[in-house]
Design brief:
Strand order of the largest sheet: 1-2-3-4
Largest sheet: 4 strands, antiparallel
Strand content: 5-15%
Helix content: 40-55%
Structural class: alpha+beta
Order of helices and strands: HHHHHHHHHHHHHHEEEE
Distance between the termini: 64 Å
Number of helices: 14
Amino acid sequence: EGALDLLKSLTGYTMTIQLLQTTRIGVAVNSMRKHCSDEEVVASAKILIKNWKRLLGERWWGEAGLPAPPKPQISPGHPGTPNPRCSPGGSGRDSADSRSSTASAISSSSSPQKRLANSNKGKAETPRTPPAPFSPSPCLLAPRYLTGDSVRDKCIEMLTAALRMDDDYKELGVNCEKMASEIEDHILWGGRGTDMKYRNRVRSRISNLKDPKNPSLRRNVLCGAILPSLIARMTAEEMASDELKELRNAMTQEAIREHQMAKTGGTVTDLFQCGKCKKKNCTYNQVQTRSADEPMTTFVLCNECGNRWKVC
């Protein structure tokens, strides 16, 4: 439905060769005509391309990205070649010789054609690489959200799809295209155009909004708890789920305790046996890691192999 509305809106534009060359809209409409399964959309695209061809003339079709007409196929037969069977006069041996020479000529001329066809067949069977995430393709955004930049339009389209991961946006009455356009606008003006930093920031937002383990982020954005300007500048740590934040906090505290224990000399003892080297040359420290009424945690370091463990 969005593609059909876009094609209808393009019908009213006054198209020029310069506009077709700069926007490459002819390539996008032709690609939509080839790959779309909706017959009404395909018919509208054909009419639009036909009108542009009539407007520009045949010599501008290639430069504007419009498809060229199919070339007429040349029949394999050679006109003007006399048929040896219908030639007047001549003996049966002459006609047989002419038929054999004609057959050998045809077979010799067809052999390079067969080789060419086989080589073309081998080339056609070569697997194609998948398109890049930001490769130019038909954009299905509403015309009022188009920016004129194919990279920006594709980013807005992917952000819209990320916001529509679930149907809850319908219950909230959120215009996902408008919200995605606002997020992309803040990301753009926070950097220097559509460079690699801009693309990485867009990818980071899309992956976090689509994360099934972090549905609260997308819900908070849809509800307005997280504004488009805020999510545009949030870091990966800030967009992470609560579970991942708790895990990171626990790992940070553990690293701090190990760092503090490394600075403390500790007490050398032979009361503990290392589980790796089975020796008893160890150093231990006691740290209060839990509440005050709980016993202290003993951290043990093997002075022989460097193995560490704790005893609660």
